[in-house]
Each structure stands twice: as C-alpha cells, then as structure tokens.
Amino acid sequence: MDDEVVKEVDVFLTKELKDHLWLMQYPVRPVDSSYDNETFLSTQIKPLQRKVNIDVAIDTNASSYLTSKGEFLASSVDGSIPKGPRTYPSGKLDRIELKSAQGIPKSDRYAIGAIKNGSVHLTPLSAIVQMRPSLSFLDKADAASKEREKLLDIDKDNSQDEEEAKTVTVKFARQETSEQKSRRIKSYDYLKKKESEESWSHFRYHKTQDEMSGKIRHRLLATKHEAVVAYASPSEYLSSLIPKPTEDIVDNPDMPSNVLSMAQLQSMSLNDRVKAIVTNAKVIRWSQLIALLDKDIDQSLAMKAIQQVAVLVQGCWVVKSEVLHPKDTFSAHNHSPAEVICRARDFMLWKFTQSPSLIRRDIAHIVKIPSEELKEMLEQIAKPKPKQGWIFNFEFDQDFVHKNKEVVQRQNMVWEHKYQQLKKHFELTKDCKPAESARERRRRHSSHSKSRSDVNDTDGEQPVPMEVKEECVVIDSPIHNPVSSPGQAITNNLNGDTDGLVAELSLLLREKLLTDCVFTMADMRRIYQTKLAQCPAGHILATGVSESLLEKTVLNSGAIKIHYMNPPGSTSTFYVLIDAGNDLDPVRTIMAQLFQKSNRIKSNTLREELEQQKVQLNEDKIKSLLKDYCTFRAGFWFLKGSMET
User: Fold this and answer.
1) pLDDT at 352 over 80
2) Which of 194, 440, 482, 618 has the smallest number of CB atoms closer than 10 Å to its CB?
C-alpha cells in the first residue's frame, strides 16, 4: 500500500548563480558564535584553485587578550629591524587568518534551497570550502629565526672556509607517456605549482545583513516558471537513480602500477604470475612467493619459473636486471642505456652474494654510473645503516639453501659465469678492484713503504708480514666452535685456515678504512662484532680474533698508528689511513706525521708542509681531505673521535 500524499510543493531550479555560489563551512567555530560581529580586514580568492584567505581582526583591548604574548609573537615575525613592510604595524598580533581547505570534491551534486510562498528554489553549488584558522605567522617567525641564526653563523663559516664543490648532474628529458602525464598532473608538486601560478583576487566581504547580501539572496529565486519535460515515468526515473543489481559487476579500483590484486594474479598463467610478483617485489623469499601462489601449486614448476626471471642472492630471489631494464630502453633519471644499468646492477648483486652489506662509494667507483641511478638500485633490495653501509633487505635464508642444494649449486655457476663477464668488462683485479696503471702502482708502493717506516718510528715494533689470499670468492670454511668474545685469542684455528681468516678480516677492515679513514681499537671491535652477527653459523670469522691481530691487519691494510695525547697526560691510539691507492696518499702521510707531533693542526700548517715537501695540491682537495679525517673546533683541526676521548 502506497503512502498517502500529504502535500505537494513546487520545486524550481535556477542556474543564475551556479558558477559563483560557494558554501563556506566553519567546522571549528561554535554554532552560536558566528563571524557577523567580527571585523574583516581583507579577503582574497583564487577562483580556479578554490582557495580563500580572510584576515579577521583581533580585539587587542579585550580582557582575554594577553598583550605581552601578542607583542612577542609580532616581534618574532617582524624582528627588531624588519627588512620590508611590517606584517603587524601595530606591534601586536592584531589579526588572525582564516584559510580554506577543500570540503567536498564533487560539489555540483549539492544545491542551496530557498523557500518562498510555499515553493522551493534550488541553485547548484560551485564549490564547498571549509574555513579554519591558520597559524602561518608561526612559520614566518620560524623562518625569521633561522635567518637570524644564519647571519650569526656567517663569521664562523668564513673562519672555517670549508665550501665544498658541488657535483652537477645533467639530466635529459624524455618523452612523457599518457599514464606518466596523468600521474604528474595529480601529483602534489604539480598542484602546488598551478596554485602558485594563479594570482590572488581581492574582494570585499559583505555580512549577512548588508544590502548587497540581500540582493544576492534575491537572485536565488527563480524568475521564470517553466515546466520540466518528463523523459521517463516515475518508476523508470527511480530505477535510473537506484539501478537493480542484475549481475555481479566487478569494479576494479584504480591501483598503483606496482600493486597487484589477488584477482589479477589468479587470472594469469604460472610463469606470468611469478614474474609479476618478483618484478613488483624486487626481492622476495621463497616462502613468501609460495604463500602468494595457490596452495595446490606444483612447487617444482614454480621453481623453474622463478629461475627464469630471478637470481639467488643471500638465499633470496632478486629479479633479474634484464627483466627490470629490457633491451633498447633507457633509465628514468639520466637516460642511461639499459645495457649500462644492467651491468652495474649485476655487479652490485654479485657483491651482495659475497657479503650482506656493501659500501655505495666502492660500487660507484667501479660501475661509474650517476649516483641517483645507483641509489635507486640499492633502495630496491637494501637499506642503509649508519657505519655499516647498505644492508641486504633479508637475512640469509639458510632453510632454503639447505633444502635446495641443486638449485643453489646451479645459481652459483650462474654467478661465476656472470662474474667472469663483469671482471673482463670492468677490468677487475683479483681483489675486486679496478686495475691501476703502472704509474699509480709505483706511487702506491712508494707511499706504502713510507707508511711502514712511519709505523716503525712511532710504534717501536715491526709489523708481522702476512700472506693474504687475493681471491674474490665466498670463503667456505668448516664449522668451528665460536668463541665467547671477539677479543679472545685464536685457539680454535691454530691448525685451520689462518690465511682465510686474515683475508676475510683484511677485506672487512680495508673496506671500512676507505670509508671512515680514522679508527680506534673500539671501532674495530664494533665493526668485527657487527660483521660477526651477520655471518651464518660456521663462518670463518666465528673462530674469533685478538686485538693484536686486528691491529696488525689494519696496519697492513694501509693505516698508521698514532699515539694521541688529549687531554695532556692521557694517551689514546688511533689508526689513520695513509694508503688509499691514489694521488692523495703522499698528502695523507704528511698529515699523519703532523698529528704525530701535535694533537691538533691548522690548515695553514698543512699547506706549508706540503710546499716544503714540494707536493702540489689545490685548495679544494686539501679542505676535502681534512674533512674526511678531522673535525673543526675553535680554529683547529682535530682527528675524528679525539674530542670525545
């Protein structure tokens, strides 16, 4: 039975103000406290961006107004001596800014209704905005404070004179696809740019009881009464508003390009499914992959599929470089060819097969690709940690390696073949470094011999010569019983692979030495303990090392020992890099000799010593070298870490 019609009301639709009618909401303003009694100082609008700014006066004579606080805030914004016009000429915080935010995106579905003589007149809305108080004056105060601090630091910056040369990267614009253009238009940066391009239009605010407001309200009423032509019956009209569900319609929501739904995965073949998962994840464990596939899937088929699109690193699967960067394509940042990117990425992955961590600087020195390209590669499969470099995203999957020895052996053969290709292309030596010229080799050996003599003069004992294996292979040592602490002497390895232990320790300390330049014994113990925690059970480092072995190894890795007296009467020992294998080694040696004589130096002292030794070096390189080794304090350079000892 239909409901009884109680009353019929005529409804009129007027569009006279539909392009100019905005609804302004005040969500943080009490209902019984409108702005009708407030004073509006200025009103600014950006019609295209739907932005509104209104300055409302604050009654500074009110009993609730704290004068001292208002003067302090105004002074923080303008400063004692403002550069331009004052934001608050009265010297007090005498206004508050109301700033708009988007209310409802699709406002054309809403209308304002006016009732007159029993008829309803509807006008569609053009925009709905929400007005809230803005505390932008605090941002201005913060910016002014930072500007004053910057001016105070100018003298200090001039005294240090440590301006560094900045690397300029040339980027090439590439043709934008329709999908990329769509994402760019929706991005925050693009919207902010469009907002800044539109200038503010100034308007006058009319209150509710003003004459102008009354005239505008009168235009909300329809002046012409024309009947609406019916295009459907009442039942058909209701059906168009609320359609009846006749069948299950799958409405796939818009998703990012790197997200796959389970429904999409189920519609793919096994090979395509595995490729899609690995490509989007970049690195994944075998157990995670199986969890995303069907429970009744044949795991042997999945194993074959993943080996076509991924390689094994640390017991986990990483998508192949040629899958991410197909042939004849170019990188997004610098338009680098796919062959160059794939080769660099393969070398990075190979390094991760040798160690769960690496130093980005060492990789960049070999592959020679732009830093942003290399950083993007690392971020996909690793995460940075202070003083440890880049750590692989997952721990070594010992369970998978133990259960799938044939697959692991096959992947080792793949990596061996790939390494031979990389070694040939990058001209790597046996210790995985770029081959150096004969001139560089003579210079390095000359400075290394000099550093050995410095060690003898300062330490009083001859470093023990060691024979180090120079092979870039994974050290597969038998399982030993681990010692209780790294400082314990090597008792489990007296008849074992001592050369292998020394080689592994040398690689570890040399890698860290090239990065940090200055060590203490505590630093070396921490580096060893961190590395030991990352190694699987039975690793050769688990046999333990003594402090004497750490010291001898770091001295044979290109460092010199310096006895540092700071404060007077106390002595600390530092190990300083002087043999990095480049043209700056003579300068490193001279600087180390100066620190052997004094616990602090001046840059002028280093320059004078270089001139006496007839070593030519420009000012920028001297500054860079001092920053690598020292900290600046009160006009002097101190070795890093020495101020805390």
Assistant:
1) yes
2) 618
